[in-house]
Amino acid sequence: MESSDIRIKQHPILDFPERRKVKFYWEGKQLEGYEGEPIASALHAAGVKVLHKSLKRGRPRGFFCAIGNCSSCLVVVDGVPNVRACTEKLRAGMRVEMQVGVGPVPRSKE
Amino acid sequence: MKPDMLMSTGVPSKQQIDGVTPPESRRKQGPFVVIECFQEIPCDPCYHSCRFGAIKPLESLNDIPQVDWDRCTGCGICVAACPGLAIFVVDEAFSDTECLIAIPYEFVPLPEKGDPVYLLDREGRRVGQGVAHRVVPGRKPQGTPVVWVRAPNELSMEARHLLPAEKASKKAGQASDKAADQASDKASAGESLTGKGGMNCVSR
Amino acid sequence: MRRTELAIIGAGPAGVCAALEAASHGVRVTLIDREEHIGGQLVKQTHKFFGWHEKSAGTRGIVISRDLADKVKDNPGICFMGSTEVLGYYGDDGVLLLEAPAGIQLLEPERLLVAAGASEKMILFPGNDLPGVYGAGAVQTLMNVRGVRPGKSVLMVGSGNIGLIVSYQLAQAGVKVAALVEALPKIGGYAVHASKIRRLGIPIYTRHTVKEAYGKNSVEGAIIWELDDNWQGIPGTEKGLDVDVMCLATGLTPLCEFLWQAGVEMAYIPELGGFVPLYDEHMETTVKGIYVAGDAACIEEASMAMAEGRLAGLAIARSLGKVPDGEFSRKREDSLRELEELRAGPTSEVIVRGLAAMRKRLEEHLSQEHSSRQAHQPGAKPDAQQGNQQRKRVSS
Ligand SMILES: Cc1cc2nc3c(=O)[nH]c(=O)nc-3n(C[C@H](O)[C@H](O)[C@H](O)COP(=O)(O)OP(=O)(O)OC[C@H]3O[C@@H](n4cnc5c(N)ncnc54)[C@H](O)[C@@H]3O)c2cc1C
Ligand code: SF4
Ligand code: SF4
Ligand code: FES
């Protein structure tokens, strides 16, 4: 599915008004999403499904519960690991990376 | 015990449908309601929606609604009020060849008056073609739009869902008018283009 | 440390109705939810609800939740703390640990109501950890709250009301539902919901389950097969489905970690969704002053969650000495009658059986406790520490 089709524009019950678009980075690549939506929803809309690689066997993981319960969606945001992509809000310029296992030791922000 | 057809397939049996169809004499007289709600569930908006007292008072919330055919005017108010989308109105006296069927339709795009539509039966099979005769749009977000379709007479008790027909020509020129887009629009009513139901099964 | 008369964990229909009822009697309420919005599950429910006409039947979940949110905002007796997660409950001190946007906070309530709802059950099959396998709640959140389609084609697993309704909602969002599978020989949810999706052409396979989901980095397809009488897959009945999403609607189980932490007696009652707290007819658990309502008490519908919330709110206000006898018994009767009638039909038989089993366990527990108290020193009931002495037990 192309990203233009993945966002719902017409719905019989709901309205999804246009919101402010912001640019962010996924694995170094620039993508666009709506400001304030969860990172996971912006990534999903951009066609990214694998967010995390499991600790032991490196199996791909995406989100599962989407409400912060299951930790299936952990990513590294601006160098900080173990951020739940399904609850963390998207901000302009965010650098998001796939987390492998427990992720890197957190970098302190300059 | 084997579960009945309704509870194993989601499709009511012929006997169940016959049980909610009025007698022949009443059918000839004009529009009547068909309440396809066969299970005792805690629910009563149909009763409250009818201003003509055609849906009999429920003794208990879980009772199955019963119709007083003499009082039903076929106005269709209850069609939009039923949360189970289980109510239809059928008018077999509409013309010699065609009937009218009121169908709740919570999908986009909503057909406009005069648009051709495909008619689907209770299993989502395409059984014929009709025309949107009257469209009562619902107010977002609460309303349920109701489409009154003109259908061949013999489909009065068969057709229970619709799909906009000939959308490709109507939508021509739009940027999103791609084959894939059409496919997903069809799928918006869960139906495959083949009319065999929305299955995409390959036996292995 | 902040204090409040009543802390409620969860601003779903149960928590909100409890808050409104308690506040109407002058109780000062702190209503906590980790989401920013009020309404719990209702904010994702685009379909119209069943129940009583007077109690918002026929109204869409999203509309009910807006209504409830407005009422909470207009109520000066309720302090709503959104985007605030309850991390734990320290039973001995009677203190809640909260993570609010402003940071970690402690809250000491005189009464606690757990209305945290439920969590989804997982099922086992090869590939169930692949991206593209989502819980039904996640699919709903993504499409109905965020406006993002979960994929192109979905296999729905489970024919309870949630599986049926989410299938319908997927179709409304323009997503194809390739099939719905159900392991039991019978559809679990309401017939009207099942008929609704059959008309759309969505096939329902009862006595079928998932054999596996496959794909390299995410779901590329799934294989389903038929089950025999011993719940074993029948070789040769496999069907391949071209799907990129699998949506699991295989049941819910009460979220009651805080009740465990508080030392509430729990029991495994499958009819009610798994481990549930023991509670009396006023929704009070075995620890005085701690109440439960909604899906956290037993997996049911929003109509029941609301009625239970009102009942709990009333009982709590009463236990704080804020409701006169006459009003209490009248309102109490109303709520109990409402619950009884909601559960009168065949679709609630399982719940009624489960509730009876739960009450039996409660009685056993109370009589055990009673006899052990008589045998040892009177008054040294372990639950009754933590400043509970001033907490009067609601007459029951
Ligand atoms: C797809 C679907 C369809 C449904 N259809 C119907 C229907 O047609 N009719 C009907 O009557 N019912 C329906 N229901 C059921 C209904 O939604 C639930 O029974 C009802 O929402 C339960 O209410 P609740 O208040 O107990 O829990 P919830 O609505 O789940 O609310 C619980 C709240 O607690 C919060 N929470 C949990 N843990 C914490 C924590 N640690 N800290 C802070 N907050 C926390 C959550 O964020 C949530 O907002 C449906 C449910 C689903 C999923
Ligand atoms: S069609 Fe009109 S008159 Fe007939 S039952 Fe429905 S609301 Fe009543
Ligand atoms: S409103 Fe619809 S679902 Fe409810 S009882 Fe009436 S017919 Fe059945
Ligand atoms: S998907 Fe479960 S925590 Fe993010």
Description of the molecule:
The complex is a heterotrimer of chains A (110), B (204) and C (396). Chain A is built from two helices and seven strands, in the order αββαβββββ. Chain A is mainly β and 110 residues long. Chain A has a single domain (18-100), classed as Ubiquitin-like (UB roll) (Roll). In chain A, a hairpin with a 2-residue loop joins strand 1 and strand 2. Chain A is globular and about 45 Å long. The N and C termini of chain A lie far apart (39 Å). In chain A, 39% of the residues are buried. The mean pLDDT of chain A is 91. With 204 residues, chain B is of the alpha+beta class. Chain B has one domain. Chain B has seven helices and eight strands; from the N terminus they run H-H-H-E-H-H-E-E-E-E-E-E-H-H-E. Chain B has helices at residues 5-9, 14-19, 24-29, 45-49, 77-81, 167-171, 179-187, and strands spanning 32-35, 87-91, 98-104, 116-120, 126-136, 146-152, 161-164, 201-203. A seven-stranded antiparallel β-sheet of chain B has the order 1-2-3-6-5-4-7. The two termini of chain B are 31 Å apart. The relative contact order of chain B is 0.13. Residues 168-204 of chain B have low confidence and may be disordered. Chain C folds into two domains: 2-119 and 252-361, FAD/NAD(P)-binding domain; 122-248, FAD/NAD(P)-binding domain, CATH 3.50.50. Chain C contains nine helices and 19 strands. In chain C, the strands form five sheets. In chain C, strands 1, 2, 3, 4, 5, 6 and 19 form a seven-stranded mixed β-sheet that branches. A five-stranded parallel β-sheet of chain C has the order 8-15-9-10-11. In chain C, helix 1 (13-24) runs parallel beside helix 7 (302-319) and helix 7 (302-319) packs antiparallel against helix 8 (325-342). The longest helix of chain C is centred in the last third of the chain and has 27 residues, at 349-375. The radius of gyration of chain C is 22 Å and the shape is globular. Chain C starts with a strand and ends in a 21-residue tail after the last helix. The model of chain C is unreliable at 378-396 (pLDDT under 50). The chains are: A mainly beta (110), B alpha+beta (204), C alpha/beta (396). The interface between B and C is large, with 61 and 61 residues. One iron/sulfur cluster is lined by residues 33, 49-50, 52, 54-55, 72-78, 89 of chain B. One iron/sulfur cluster binds next to helix 5 of chain B.
